[in-house]
Each structure stands twice: as C-alpha cells, then as structure tokens.
Specification:
Elements lengths: L10 H7 L9 E3 L5 H4 L4 E3 L3 H9 L4 E2 L24 E4 L4 H14 L5 E7 L7 H7 L5 E6 L2 E7 L12 E5 L6 E5 L11 H9 L16 E5 L5 H8 L3 E6 L2 H13 L5 E4 L11 E6 L4 E2 L2 E2 L2 H8 L5 E12 L4 H9 L3 E5 L3 E7 L2
Parallel strand pairs: 1-2, 1-4, 2-3, 4-5, 10-11, 10-13, 11-12, 13-16
Antiparallel strand pairs: 5-7, 6-7, 8-9, 14-15, 16-18, 17-18
Helix pairs in contact: 9-10
Length: about 350
C-alpha cells in the first residue's frame, strides 16, 4: 500500500497530499502520526519514540536526530559526511525555539541547496518561519495554504550557528541543595522548575524509605517522563538507584546531561511509558506526567502510567505522582490500586500516592 491509496488525516498532511511534488526519498522531520506518511515513501526523523516505533512497525525507516549512523548510507542521517537527499519536510512544532533548532540541525546535516519545505498550522505560528528564515539568511516563498495550514519552501544553506547552542543550563535549589539542569527547547520545564514538580519534591522526603544514613533513599526508583532530569538527579543524590525514561529523545539526553553535570549516576532510556521496561519492577515510581500532545489534551500516556503501574511495582511499592488538580486521575488510581491518598494539595496541583498490594 502506498501513500497514494491512503488518506491523510491531519491538516498538515492533507495540505501536503494535494501537492504535485514527488516526495520519494524525502526526509519527514518531526512528523505527526498519519497513515498517509507512514504508508508512503522516504524516512522519518523524530525525537518522539512513539512516532518512530509506529513507522518501524509499518516497515518504514525512522531515526532519532541523535542517531550517528543509523541504517544504510543511502537513507540515514549523516555520520561523518553529508549525503544527497532529494529534500526534506519540516513539520513546524508548537515550540518555536524547537523549530529553530530543527532548522539549524538540517542546515548542519544536509548538503547546501537541499530543498526544504516547512508546514504547520496557522494557529501554531507557522507564518513566523518567514522571519526565522530571513534571520538565517535563507530565502523563502509560500507554496500553498489550506485547512488553516501554510506550506513554505526554501533551500538549506550554511549558517554560523551550531545546533548545540540550543542546549542551556539553569540552577535550581529545591531543598537548599544546588542542582544544575540541562535544558533544551521542547523539553517539559525548559529553563525553569515547574511548580508541580516543586510540590512533589517537597512531599517525597516524608514517604520514600530511607536507610541509616542521612538522605539515604533505598531501592530502585523509576522516574517516568523524566524531562530535564530534576527528579532523577534529586533521587540519585540521595542514593536511590534511578532509572529515568521519557518518550522524547531530547528529554532523555537532557536527563543524561543533568546527571553527568552533577556527578550523579542513573540509567536513562527512551521509552513510550513502559515499552522499554518489560518485566522490570521498582520500589517506587515518581512522575509529573504530561497531559498535552502539542495543543490537544491527551490523557492516554498518564492513564497508561497509572493503570499499568501495579505490574511494574514490587509488593508494597508506591506510585507517587503530581498532577493539575482538575485532571481525572482519582478514578484511574482507584481502578488500578483499589485506593489512594492525597499527600499534598495547593489548589493548583495535587500529589497522589498509591501502594501496590
């Protein structure tokens, strides 16, 4: 089955599907889930593990921007040298800073003069790419607009900004102990300590088991949805054996850098909720789970986190999560554990605790 026989479902793909361009061999960068893409030609470059797994399940090549030499030389991102690619399509993300990073990465990765199309929803700020491209010295023209989306075209060129310049660091002192956090556009909590995470950190010392030494947290702890690594670093500093996972490759890399910068040890993995953790159990799972996918509310990952938590907890293990007070997690906790308690509630956020039997 080819893209010609599949219907595009997302507005951006519907706009692309009506183009006369031959997209065979093109790179689809930061793409959404869409059968028209997954059943077509070319390869995906995505930081979202769930997107890459969907492509790979369909027999299609998909890579992370952190893959150095994945796949064959004909189709994969560059290793030590650049290779010819017919063109690339960048799906402009909600975070404009992340969109700018993708542009810089493409300019550094593909040969000068490679055709690039940029597509996105008008509501998401796609029209701002005109100023972004102009600032980078790249020309641009509008190709089409429909479904409240716009499509622009340019050609990649050499720019003087290294994509790694997007990585920043910021200090936090959640309990009077300094931590330096790595941060990247598109990662939750970029550049600041989230208030919900702060409330969770204030609550954890009273409920995590500790040993004889001061701050000696016992057991294996899973940081689900690790973001910039604040929870993983806080736990590792207190002696916990930490495993930190996230579906976002930028978050996993941020957590890896955060742990290394602070001289801490922990395992970091890409995982779509529990997908990389088959058969593993923990003494505690801590999380500030997301509930947005771009601009849409999506409870799916958080629901899976809660409902499958008992299978990944040791007997007596506990799930500790913080969430906006309005989110419908009590029903899910009741279904999964048969009961729960609220450890903290500041009217904006609640910290929940549930214990496995």
């Amino acid at each position: 089955m080819t893209a010609d026989t599949l219907q595009a479902l997302t507005p951006t793909c519907q706009l692309l599907a009506r183009q006369e361009a031959d997209y065979r061999g093109w790179w689809w960068v930061a793409p959404p889930r869409d059968p028209w893409l997954e059943g077509g030609q070319g390869l995906a470059i995505s930081a979202d593990l769930a997107v890459r797994q969907a492509w790979q399940a369909a027999g299609r090549p998909a890579y992370s921007p952190f893959d150095s030499q994945p796949g064959s030389a004909e189709e994969a991102p560059r290793g030590e040298g650049q290779r010819e690619v017919p063109g690339a399509v960048l799906f402009w993300p909600k975070s404009h800073a992340l969109g700018e990073w993708w542009l810089l990465w493409l300019c550094a990765t593909l040969p000068e003069g490679t055709p690039l199309q940029l597509v996105g929803e008008n509501q998401g700020g796609i029209k701002r790419v005109l100023k972004v491209l102009a600032a980078l010295g790249l020309g641009c023209r509008k190709l089409d607009s429909a479904r409240r989306c716009s499509l622009f075209e340019t050609r990649l060129g050499r720019v003087a900004i290294d994509p790694d310049a997007a990585w920043t660091a910021f200090e936090v002192e959640p309990d009077a102990e300094r931590l330096l956090l790595a941060s990247h556009p598109g990662v939750f909590g970029h550049g600041k300590l989230d208030d919900g995470t702060r409330l969770l950190l204030e609550t954890l010392p009273a409920v995590l088991p500790v040993g004889d030494g001061p701050g000696d947290v016992l057991g294996d702890v899973l940081d689900m949805g690790c973001g910039d690594g604040i929870l993983a670093a806080w736990l590792a500093r207190r002696g916990a054996a930490v495993t930190a996972v996230d579906v976002n490759a930028f978050a996993v890399e941020a957590t890896r850098r955060t742990l290394a910068t602070n001289g801490l040890v922990g395992e970091t993995l890409e995982s779509d909720v529990y997908s990389a953790l088959a058969g593993r159990t923990f003494d505690a799972i801590v999380s500030n789970p997301p509930f947005h996918q771009e601009r849409a509310i999506d409870y799916g990952p958080a629901a899976q986190l809660i409902l499958e938590a008992p299978a990944h907890l040791k007997p007596g293990g506990q799930l500790l999560l913080v969430a906006n007070a309005f989110l419908p997690y009590p029903d899910l906790l009741e279904r999964a554990f048969g009961g729960f308690e609220i450890l903290a509630d500041d009217r904006r956020f609640r910290v929940y605790r549930a214990v496995s039997r």
